[in-house]
């Protein structure tokens, strides 16, 4: 019976090798379209280990008089909300990829945007046309801030740099110190200091007059994702993957409080206009309010997905929250509760769902995982393993030398490893064995470099299933000659008209019969 199993496996490969038409081969050689066709952003989904749509709203900024709110999305769009008209009035494609941060100048004449295309852009608020583009960073730009006198533009990015650009002289200064991606920057009210958060678990304080580091805030146990400064200018708040929001004193440069939210990531922080409340947004879909003096949670309210940003509005007790499901929530609050006043959804937002991917897309994700780690698009190619990864993916990523990857890729690999480690450890079932041998056949046919690794893995898994594992290699050799003799016949038959799915189904049926025989023998 073991010989029959092996014969079916090799027969499957032979059928598929000679069954794919020229058109099939041509389409296969185009490469995977899974990332391009998916409604989810691959990198964000990989980092979050949950579906994050490309239309997710990442950031929000309000102008000084509160009349305009700008939003940035995962697909690079910028939208403008007019608070008087209570509606979206403008929308355009601002960046090739994510808009990570936005800020208005003091006179609301310009809007600055930081993007996933490594660019910082300036837009005219008169007609929203592009005024200028800076390409100071070599990777995603995650934060942008402007000094009150509008002289210095401070940005932070995945290249671990905080960059200070003098808008009058054009001089650019790189402030180095972080060892991982810079995720957020805020400025002191007088514009003399900058605070930067990073995935290296620190917050660094920079003297903008002398352009040097003056302090490092340590305390967070995981990536620091977001910063906010209160209206008094006395406190900085930080949000982290470690499930805490922390409060730091600007004068003493020390931590003065920690607000814990167990079993979730804190992704956003904001202060109330009177600086008495601290708001947090998190991956449990909740917005919470903490009384800063008592350090107690006083209310919480749900959104529909991960909270990506928080913004205190010009109305005394109004708060805005953006979410990864592209919803914008307007809240009114008191000291003991909050109510949802309005939910706004941009016209371009689409509610997507994870669709099945092709065998070739699956294989090319794993090919990229192993052999394309130096590629700039590595994250785009492997991020969807958070949705489509399986036991084979888990094995590969467990053996990946994560520490040798650049900082942004380390973070993605770490999150995927955590996600895939929770998959069941039991041996493969009948249907899965047939499916993996089908994938191996496609890998062989497409001449992918992942073929050898997949062959070793699927052979080992099949050996666990085989009723006669000790004779596995011996029977493999004996069957190979028989398959070769049938090759000429198969290549001339109608096997060339068959498709991988049809052959896979037939093999699975045979495996079911063998499983029944094995159970009856017991």
UniProtKB/TrEMBL annotation:
Keywords: Repeat, Signal, WD repeat. It comes from the Bacteria. InterPro entries: Quinoprotein_ADH-like_sf, Rrp9-like, WD40/YVTN_repeat-like_dom_sf, WD40_PAC1, WD40_repeat_CS, WD40_rpt. CDD domains: WD40 (cd00200). It comes from Thalassoglobus polymorphus. The keyword Phosphoprotein does not apply. This is WD domain, G-beta repeat. WD repeats lie at residues 92-133, 134-175, 175-216, 217-258, 266-300. Gene3D superfamilies: YVTN repeat-like/Quinoprotein amine dehydrogenase. SMART domains: WD40. It holds the Pfam family WD40. Residues 1-22 form the signal peptide. One of its GO terms (molecular function) is U3 snoRNA binding.
């Amino acid at each position: 019976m073991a010989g029959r199993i092996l014969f079916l496996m090799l027969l499957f490969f032979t059928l598929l090798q000679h069954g794919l038409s020229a058109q099939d081969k041509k389409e296969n050689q185009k490469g995977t379209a899974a990332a391009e066709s998916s409604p989810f952003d691959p990198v964000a989904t990989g980092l979050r280990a949950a579906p994050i749509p490309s239309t997710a709203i990442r950031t929000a900024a309000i102008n000084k008089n509160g009349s305009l709110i700008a939003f940035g999305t995962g697909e690079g769009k910028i939208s403008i909300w007019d608070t008087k008209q209570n509606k979206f009035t403008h929308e355009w494609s601002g960046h090739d990829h994510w808009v990570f941060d936005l800020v208005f100048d003091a006179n609301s004449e310009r809007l600055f945007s930081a993007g996933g295309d490594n660019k910082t852009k300036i837009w005219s608020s008169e007609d929203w046309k592009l005024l200028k583009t800076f390409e100071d960073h070599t990777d995603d730009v995650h934060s942008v801030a402007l000094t009150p006198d509008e002289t210095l533009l401070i940005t932070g990015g995945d290249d671990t740099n905080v960059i200070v650009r003098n808008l009058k002289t054009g001089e650019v200064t790189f402030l180095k110190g972080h060892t991982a991606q810079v995720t957020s920057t805020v400025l002191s009210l007088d514009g003399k200091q900058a605070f930067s958060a990073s995935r290296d678990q620190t917050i660094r304080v920079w003297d903008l007059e002398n352009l040097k580091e003056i302090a490092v805030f340590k305390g967070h146990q995981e990536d620091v994702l977001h910063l906010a400064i209160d209206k008094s200018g006395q406190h900085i708040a930080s949000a982290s993957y470690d499930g805490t929001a922390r409060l730091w004193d600007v004068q003493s440069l020390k931590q003065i409080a920690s607000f814990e939210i167990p079993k979730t990531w804190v992704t956003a922080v904001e202060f109330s206009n009177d600086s008495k409340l601290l708001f947090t947004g998190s991956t449990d879909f909740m917005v919470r309010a903490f009384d800063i003096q008592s350090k107690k949670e006083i209310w919480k309210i749900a959104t529909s997905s991960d909270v990506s940003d928080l913004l205190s509005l010009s109305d005394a007790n109004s708060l805005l929250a953006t979410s990864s499901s592209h919803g914008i929530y307007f809240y009114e609050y008191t000291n003991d509760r909050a109510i949802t006043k309005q939910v706004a959804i941009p016209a371009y937002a689409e509610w997507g769902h994870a669709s099945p991917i092709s065998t070739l897309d699956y294989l090319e994700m794993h090919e990229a995982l192993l052999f394309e780690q130096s590629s700039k698009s590595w994250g785009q190619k492997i991020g969807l393993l958070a949705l489509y990864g399986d036991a084979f993916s888990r094995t590969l990523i467990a053996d990946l030398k994560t520490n040798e990857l650049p900082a942004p890729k380390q973070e993605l690999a770490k999150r995927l490893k955590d996600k895939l480690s929770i998959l069941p450890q039991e041996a493969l079932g009948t249907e899965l064995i047939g499916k993996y041998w089908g994938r191996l056949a496609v890998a062989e046919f497409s001449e992918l470099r992942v073929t050898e690794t997949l062959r070793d893995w699927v052979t080992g898994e099949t050996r666990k299933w085989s009723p006669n594992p000790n004779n596995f290699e011996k029977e493999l050799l004996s069957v190979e000659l028989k398959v070769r003799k049938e090759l000429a016949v198969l290549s001339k038959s109608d096997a060339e008209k068959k498709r991988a799915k049809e052959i896979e189904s037939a093999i699975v049926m045979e495996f079911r019969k063998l499983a029944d025989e094995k159970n009856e023998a017991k």
